[in-house]
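Internal tracking record. Fields below are filled automatically when a chain is submitted to the structure queue. Please do not edit lines marked as system-generated. If the sequence contains nonstandard residues, flag them in the REMARKS field before resubmitting.
Queue: standard
Priority: normal
Entity type: single polypeptide chain
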Amino acid sequence: MTHQPADQPTAQATTATVTTSHPIWWGRWLYNLLWVLCRTLAISVLGFRLRRAGRLPRDGGLLVLSSHQSHLDPLLLGLATDRRLSSLARSSLFQFGPFGRVITALDAVPIDRTASTVKAMKTVISRLRGGAAVIVFGEGTRTTTGELGSLKSGFALLAKRAGVPIAPVAIVGAFECWPRFRLLPRPGRIRLEFGEVIPAAEVAMLDERQLVERCERELQELDRRARLTRAGQPLAGEHGN
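SYSTEM-GENERATED OUTPUT FOLLOWS
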């Protein structure tokens, strides 16, 4: 496995029609502009750094399985790759005129929280089968302590039904920047640690329980590595930052 240097700066489900190209002409321009601006702020204000075992697949459906520390997480994940990622958003947010058009242009996936869980999962599966990369927070909610919580099994069903690989990633430091009890974020040092992508063939081979256990072990290790890096401690076989 090869890694980027630990401190190298780098650059989330229903729509009317599921498609791999965005229907709004200015969507890519807006996404690219915001990506550059937010990346600059994240590096300078939030101390944003990442390490990854390899590049994410450039196309095809992908489930990005992440730990969940703060409201910043979808943004941080989007800044970690030049591939556009889709995040899940309440469907009610899309009803507010210009704001709804903006988050649609940024590939947000509307989820109706008043509808059944089955309907919501079908929406995400459709987006994944359509070739999108979708962020799923496996813990189901933001941490209240800053520590990694237990994974829910829903992500495993999504990945298996859609037949897509899983990219695990741990986020550390975002909780300190924007904990649940704080109104606004504050400066800090945030680290993202990406693991190797779990191939679709392996996802299909494992049952849901085995897949949850596999991903939980992976996220625990990624979380451990990210915390060491954030604390300035070298990892095994490395000489530090």
